[in-house]
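For reproducibility, we list the full input for the thiamine diphosphate complex.
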Amino acid sequence: METLSVYVPKLVTNKEYIASGHRACSGCGEVLALRYVCKALGRNTIISNATGCMEIISSPLPETAWEVSWIHTLFENAAAVASGIESGLKALKRKHGYIKDVKVVAMGGDGATADIGLQALSGALERGHDFIYVCFDNEAYMNTGIQRSSETPFGASTTTAPSGKVSMGQHTWKKNMAAIAAAHNIPYVATSCSSYPFDIMYKIEKARKVKGPSYIHILSVCPTGWRCPSSDTIKMGRLAVETGVFPLYEIENGEYKMNFDYPKLRPVEDYLTAQGRFRHLTKEQIAEIQQKVIVEYEKIKMLSSRKKGK
Ligand SMILES: Cc1ncc(C[n+]2csc(CCOP(=O)(O)OP(=O)(O)O)c2C)c(N)n1
Ligand code: SF4
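The corresponding predicted structure, in tokenized form, follows.
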């Protein structure tokens, strides 16, 4: 297991770029993750933010919680707007010879990233823009009332895939956005989780230094949509990682590296039974999820043990 603590002293700052007083629900893991992301990015940043929870809670007119340059974009075009900003900065540099080192960042929820904005994201990654894309994955369209997305996990109950007599809730498996981003042959891809502040800051800091596109996928605990107590936010993210449901890893120039590898994973039951969205699952369904988690976890481990060119 790699230790990330060596990077910490350099990264943590008292400065906040998301002001307190925003309107996120109490215990929101997504705004916590956003706060860490902004700390690691620093002031010389321009953010293109898709519609979604983080936009809604941070910008009720005439107020704003943002202390960096920020543009609210449509649901579908955060990455396209970021591409335009990055190209504009390049043009200014050509004209004036020098401009400040400004990093362009696009961000959105899982709906904005894996579903509605996927085409714009794919285009921006393929064109090789120098930017970071951050997906805050709370596993549903939370801002508009917990509708399922392609990132909603198998078995979760949502308002558009509800559990009941004829349905067990979501019946498809979570889309693997990290693999999709890596398939664009970009220099840096990583997964992280709102319960791991140093891991988030380390990976964002690393992405900031990359020339070209980076993609960071952050599992962001949402007590409102996951139906768990707001005091359990940190615990829930840790359980996702410790059960292997959401492994933390990096893909650097195509090479996988698992950041936390537990010799013995906790049973997925510990994670599933702690959340109301999985309350209805039968023992057989939990066993099916357990099996899938182990298969996917072993895949990442196997890819991590492979050296480049083999
Ligand atoms: C094209 C389009 N369709 C639907 C909406 C309505 N809408 C706004 S935010 C949102 C949900 C956002 O979900 P997600 O991207 O997962 O972010 P979260 O709110 O969960 O953080 C929806 C459906 C919209 N603004 N534009
Ligand atoms: S609905 Fe979930 S993600 Fe959105 S602000 Fe509330 S806790 Fe955060």
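Residues 21 and 65 are 7 Å apart (CA to CA). The chain has one domain: 16-305. Both points were considered when choosing residues for closer inspection.
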